[in-house]
Amino acid sequence: MSRGRTTGFFLVAMTLVGCGLDPVRVSDRVSTRDMLLSVTALDDGAAAAIDVRVGSPIGAVELTGGDALFVTVDGTRRPMAEGQLNGAPIYSVQLDTLPGDFLLDLERQDDRDVHGVVVEVPSPFTLTAVGLMQDLPLTLAWEADPEGGEVVVTVQGDCIDVLTRSLDEDTGMLVLTQAELRPPPAGPPLAPCALQVSISKTITTRDALFSTNPGGNVTTSVEQRRTIAATWAP
Amino acid sequence: MHEGRRFIGGVAGALALACILTGTEAAQAGDPSHVALWRFDMHGAYFQGDQRLGAGTLAPYNGWGFWGRAGISEFPWKWLGYDVLAQIGMVGTPQGTFDVSAEGAVAFAPARWKGSVDGSIVLGVGGGFGFERPVWLGRGGTGYPLLLGRLTLKPKNSIRFFTSFRFTPITSDAGWVRSYDLEVAGGYKWWYLGLRGRIDDVTQGDPERLYRTYWLGPTAGLVIR
Fold first, then answer.
1. CATH class of the A27-122+203-222 domain in this structure
2. Any CB–CB contact under 8 A between B186 and chain A?
3. pTM for this one?
């Protein structure tokens, strides 16, 4: 047998061996105890969405073989629909609102299920903004909730740099002077300027799925965000 | 009384079996059926498969290995002999680099013939000791049982073909581990070339899964006897 034929035979044999392997990143190949469930949710006052990504030691996981995610919101259990985000699978549910804590279930055909993971949701709130007339400051008010998570205030518009402020406590009120709405380096426009004012409350958690080691993890980041428009004449 | 008779019967049976296996004549040097095989070879292999990550996740991996091996299969008696094989080498994975093992077995030659193609069949039972396989199980030493078989065909005095199979099952804390090793080789006079493939299977994890590694690569060696 010539050297070329010998090399060809070896390459063909290795190809056949390789073709016998299963594809990667499907949930059939991942233990529930190795999974990282990453839950993000946002209620912006107009609509809400819950997204779940499934991670593992071998990367993002696509649920296959009958494996499925469900959320129970306000007593109603819903299956999560699969989509794609940046080339990785993502599981989503679209809602009108996030009224309170919801439950997450992962059901698997050939592995452990995960039932009743409680995902904490900040309480819904209403945002009001007054001021910015003549020399009046911008006064923001909302329903305070000491357990409502991290509070971040954001003010943005064409005539200012983005102003972001994290609050140590949920005080339910914030006063921003006009001096704090710093104009951009190019200088302020003369005409009245439209501003977007947002209050965001976010609760983040990290827990184990099981008490074993390894036991998998679930991380959650749930945000209630309210945005209103304001006008400022610098 | 009955126990005494049973003991005597057992001893007589064992002696009879020993006489059958050893025969009345020793295997001759240069025996054309060639049950004996002394060899030294070099073996390289590429491998790929799945290793376990975490509690029970199938993670693809691959690598290479390169070994030098020395083996002696000899038959002091016509039907009964021994087979030993030692190897030392390198395995190219993050988990390990050095590899060594030694195996020995009691060998039987249930079939040996002369004709247009001389040949023999050898079966063996024994054990071995070496680093754990596949390498992702860890780098501890482990003992294991061994079953082997070898078919040798010699169509001409200067041409020899042989294929050997080795099976090493291990049950340990790491789970149910077994290795299937098949080698096919053909040689001319002192030299031979072959292809060796191996499958390492490990059943373990939560959930319990099969983690399989395929090995395949060439062998080039020297037959001394």
1. mainly beta
2. no
3. 0.80
